[in-house]
Amino acid sequence: MNSGSAVTRIARPASRSVISPRRISALTIPKYATAKEDQIAYNTQDLLQQTLVFYAQFEDLIELLCDAANYGPEAKLEHRYSELRQWMLSHYPILRPYVSQFLATDENDGGEFLEDRDRPSDAFEFLFAAPNLHEFLRIDDGHMISRIIRSREAIALYANHLRTIQ
Questions:
Q1: Is 77 exposed, middle or buried (0-12, 13-18, 19+ CB in 10 A)?
Q2: pLDDT tens, 95-104?
Q3: Is the pLDDT of residue 127 over 50?
Q4: Residue 137 in domain
Q5: Position 36 pLDDT exceeds 50
Q6: DSSP string, the chain
Q7: Count of domains in the chain?
Q8: Whole-angstrom Cα distance, residue 77 to residue 115?
């Protein structure tokens, strides 16, 4: 049992930053191809569905990280982390420009291990930046709970935004 990990401790949430109206009004809905390859459409219902699928995977990742903090990087957890990490690495870049508009930043965000950059760019990426659970637990700096809370809040705010513009 790895009770020394900060993921298992209760941490004070980081101070919430207020999202300015300018940041929200600057938010745009991505264009993407619909069933007709040549037709570009704005479809907030599809975007909302994609966001909800992302949120479900994100919650699986958080549960797994908490389990790893409690039980250590067991083989079964490592395998699932690898699957979720690959899914996040391929899906978060699509969502990042939109969700990041709602993500409260913190000076402690950033870290190691992303292949295409020196460090993660935000709280979301920090949660799946480590190549394995052993490394995730090693780089746990005591700010994981704050990152989880801020990431969850950003997804919820973005989903609510999509619901209001439908």
A1: middle
A2: 999 998 999 8
A3: yes
A4: yes
A5: no
A6: --TTSTTTS--PPPPPPPPPHHHHHT--PPPEE-SSTT-EE--HHHHHHHHHHHHHHHHHHHHHHHHHHHH-S-HHHHHHHHHHHHHHHHHHHHHHHHHGGGPPP-TT---S--TTSSS-SSHHHHTT-SSSHHHHHHT--S-HHHHHHHHHHHHHHHHHHHHHT-
A7: 1
A8: 22
**pLDDT attached to residue 105:** 79
44-84 pLDDT per residue, tens:
888 899 999 999 999 999 999 999 999 999 999 999 999 99
For residue 142, being part of any structural domain is answered with: yes
Check if the beta carbon of residue 68 is closer than 8 Å to that of residue 133.
Answer: yes
